[in-house]
Amino acid sequence: MSVDKCEMAWVKPPMLINNFPMNIPARELTSRITPVDKMFVLAATGIPQVDVDQWRLQIGGMVSRPITLDFPRLLKYSKIELEACHVCAGSAVNARAAVHRVANVAWGGVALVDLLEGTQLRTSAKFLWAYGLDHGTYREHVVNSYIKDIPLDRYFIEDLMVAYELNGKPLSPEHGYPARLVAPGLYGTNMVKWLTCLWFSDERAPGAFTHEFYNDPELGADGNATGRMLPVWEVQPDAILVGPQAGVKVGEETLLWGWAWSGCDVVRVEASTDGGATWQRTRLQAREHEAWQRFDLPWTPTAAGRHALVVRATDSHGVTQPSVSARNAQFRCQVDVEDAA
Ligand SMILES: Nc1nc2c(c(=O)[nH]1)N[C@H]1C(S)=C(S)[C@@H](COP(=O)(O)O)O[C@H]1N2
Ligand SMILES: [Mo]
What we know:
Elements: H1 3-8, E1 15-16, E2 47-48, E3 56-61, E4 67-70, H2 71-76, E5 80-87, E6 102-111, H3 112-116, E7 127-132, E8 136-138, E9 141-143, E10 146-151, E11 161-166, E12 169-170, E13 180-182, E14 195-201, H4 208-211, E15 215-219, E16 225-231, E17 238-243, E18 248-249, E19 254-261, E20 266-272, E21 280-281, E22 283-284, E23 293-299, E24 305-315, E25 331-338
Parallel strand pairs: 3-14, 18-25
Antiparallel strand pairs: 1-2, 3-4, 5-6, 6-11, 7-10, 7-14, 8-9, 11-12, 11-13, 15-16, 17-19, 19-23, 20-21, 20-24, 22-23, 24-25
This protein binds the ligand Nc1nc2c(c(=O)[nH]1)N[C@H]1C(S)=C(S)[C@@H](COP(=O)(O)O)O[C@H]1N2 and molybdenum atom.
């Protein structure tokens, strides 16, 4: 099996236009598990309509015994379930644009290490390439596959999963049916949908989605670009405000609350009701599994008028969200406080 075979073996499936929502307002993300109809959908060239009887997953590259699985064979492996925060990195080309595109879902599938049993993965493999069945054009690039890679020296292969369920149901076409890669702690762009091939290599994967897109310019201490690029892998600390939803009144207690996440645990979330001039620490739930964490802070406004609310998270690596000009720049919104009747 060669790399080319990852692409060539496929009769490309028909594509549907992606008419699904890309942005869900933060105030709609009220439940800990995001219902599928409140999830964002990203699809570079549209939604492939995959015939599951034709579908195969190949695992090859730097393994002594490559394997090919069909869908019934995949289902025979022991099933694992994992609740995890699902985060889109936002723009494929602009590292300074913050979108706060996020969900928290339950994946069901197979641990990659279970699939690898007997394949004899070589220790010299440095990257795992993942191929998705996309085809068409994206930002003026002709696309024959959506190919991403995961660095094995900075990510635990034990955390990777080939998922075929989302929130207890089979993956829907737009979320990757019949199977996708799940890489908790990495940005969504790395979690290849309509997965057909996993390929171990000692080099970075070819193609626009690793070399052209999802690469941030590294900034030196002086704030200028060093010329090196940083692939968009680990999720950076971030937070959104879900409430207060409406009807905030002077002298009445309301609750500022929302969700915080990072590639590791979030250890502190602070909130500001004056546009970031002063901050208060919120109450923060501990992380369970790879889920987002709820935070809240009771607030009794003392003045009527428009208030600028801001939140900022700090993770266990000691990283705090930047205020502006970053994909994880602090979330801001406004609330109108009315005089009590
Ligand atoms: N094959 C394929 N996988 C893909 C993409 C894609 O365009 N094609 N988009 C990626 C991006 S940018 C994100 S944020 C997530 C979104 O997953 P979702 O649409 O299931 O929410 O899928 C990722 N996996
Ligand atoms: Mo994304």
